[in-house]
């Protein structure tokens, strides 16, 4: 069976790939048959640009890191997972002995090996060997498609955790892409009374508005700060989540923020940006950054299982594995209204 291989920038192929046979099952590992893999903005960026910052594709690499599947084999020391278990996987494997990992900060371990980040292969392929410690069982009422959403959802849950959401907080999420929407869902689940979501795409904003106590703001025709002030008696929002990655949006994060508010930067910025320390200072703003996530996969699974979070409206399109090259071409064209596209592997 084939893998989806990024040969080089703008060149994808579905072909046999030797890594499959080379992977050895260690005592603490499980072998997983992949079921569903979501297409992430980073996968698309590797495809269209051949790299992201210091991570450049120098040899053929399998794409995909948002995945769910079924355990088909377990290592001799694995407890708690059995062949046949339905699972989702955390795609970053840190060095267990590193200082960052020992401090519990494993996501910022400089040695972390993350799927589909060169030179590490992703999982748009038949099977993968993965540490059991980063493999999470999903209950029967959570589908493989939802389970493959746990990875992006984890970013939102980590951001809401960093923001220390309190019941009744009002938040603004800048950007209604997949990460913006999972952040809005996480903020609501964490206790926000209302979440404003800003974007320029009406279809995505409509979807955002359907997710709960969400007020959409189209910044192409509405003034963001004015709208926020109108709705909060001029006070501002307690939390701003920057999910757009737009330098201009990121520079303005303090304008809609209330005194002693919190800002979480989530969207990645290719270049340095400017922000006003003066505006942050007069508000005594707290600024946080997130890099992926840590310790939140079990929480995400629990919220999907209980219904506290429903990610299903975010999955807007599914492709068969045989059509995955086409799926990436479509994803690269950034079609309006599409949020999360997923690929289903043959079972
Ligand atoms: Zn992702």
TrEMBL record:
SUPFAM superfamilies in the cross-refs: GroES-like, NAD(P)-binding Rossmann-fold domains
Cofactor: Zn(2+)
Enzyme class: oxidoreductase
Domain Enoyl reductase (ER) residues, every copy: 15-334
Pfam families linked to this entry: ADH_N, ADH_zinc_N
InterPro entries given in the database record: ADH-like_C, ADH-like_N, ADH_Zn_CS, ER, GroES-like_sf, NAD(P)-bd_dom_sf, SDH-like
E.C. number(s) listed in UniProt: 1.1.1.9
Example of a GO MF term: D-xylulose reductase activity
Assigned keywords, A-Z: Metal-binding, Oxidoreductase, Zinc
Xref: PANTHER family: SORBITOL DEHYDROGENASE
Family named by the database record: Belongs to the zinc-containing alcohol dehydrogenase family.
This protein's name: D-xylulose reductase
């Amino acid at each position: 069976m084939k893998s989806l291989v990024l040969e080089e920038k703008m060149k994808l192929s579905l072909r046999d790939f030797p890594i499959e046979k080379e992977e050895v099952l260690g005592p603490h590992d499980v072998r997983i048959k992949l079921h569903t893999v979501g297409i992430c903005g980073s996968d698309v960026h590797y495809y269209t640009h051949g790299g992201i910052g210091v991570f450049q594709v120098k040899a053929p690499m399998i794409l995909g890191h948002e995945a769910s599947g079924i355990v088909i084999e377990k290592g001799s020391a694995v407890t708690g997972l059995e062949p046949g278990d339905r699972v989702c996987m955390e795609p970053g494997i840190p060095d267990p002995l590193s200082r960052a990992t020992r401090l519990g900060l494993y996501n910022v371990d400089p040695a972390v090996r993350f799927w589909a980040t060169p030179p590490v292969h992703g999982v748009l392929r038949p099977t993968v060997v993965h540490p059991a410690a980063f493999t999470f069982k999903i209950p029967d009422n959570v589908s493989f498609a939802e389970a493959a959403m746990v990875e992006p959802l984890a970013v939102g849950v980590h951001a809401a955790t960093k923001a220390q959401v309190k019941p009744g907080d009002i938040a603004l999420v800048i950007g209604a892409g997949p990460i913006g929407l999972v952040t809005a869902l996480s903020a609501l689940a964490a206790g926000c009374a209302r979440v404003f979501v800003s974007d320029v795409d009406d279809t995505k904003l409509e979807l955002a508005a359907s997710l709960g106590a969400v007020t959409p703001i189209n910044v192409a025709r509405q003034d963001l700060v004015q709208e926020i002030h109108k709705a909060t008696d001029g006070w501002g929002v307690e939390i701003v989540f920057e999910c757009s990655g737009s330098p201009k949006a990121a520079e303005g994060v303090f304008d809609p923020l209330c005194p002693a508010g919190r800002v979480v930067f989530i969207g990645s910025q290719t270049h340095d940006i400017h922000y006003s320390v003066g505006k942050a200072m007069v508000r005594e703003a707290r600024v946080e950054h997130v890099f992926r996530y840590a310790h939140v996969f079990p929480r995400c699974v629990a919220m999907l299982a209980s219904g506290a979070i429903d990610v299903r409206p975010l999955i807007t399109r599914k492709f068969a594995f045989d059509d995955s090259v086409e799926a990436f071409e479509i994803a690269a064209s950034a079609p309006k209204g599409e949020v999360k596209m997923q690929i289903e592997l043959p079972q």
